[in-house]
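Customer ticket, subject: "Can you confirm the structure for XRE family transcriptional regulator?"

Message body: Hello, I'm evaluating your service for our small team and ran a test protein. I'd like someone to confirm that this is what the system normally returns, since I don't have a reference to compare against.
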Amino acid sequence: MAWFSLEKRRSKFGQFLDKHDLTQQIVVTKSGVSRNTISRLCQPKYEEGPTMKNARKIIKALRDITGKDIDYDDLWSM
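Agent reply: Thanks for trying us out. I re-ran your input and got the following:
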């Protein structure tokens, strides 16, 4: 029996990327938001979300990539 889990702990945003089989790099490329920001937003301690400017860029990119109607609440807590 393992004493630890190999599964990554992820924020709501990170879980969304995993569920839709998206890489952080595709979001970086499509949104223009820095790799460091996207990586940080996938970590559970950053559940509060990005600036509104970056949130708009990320949401637009994810809508374009997935074809889904995505809202701020789908990715981050208010």
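A couple of notes from the result: The chain has one domain: 12-75. The chain has five helices and no strands. Feel free to reply with more questions.
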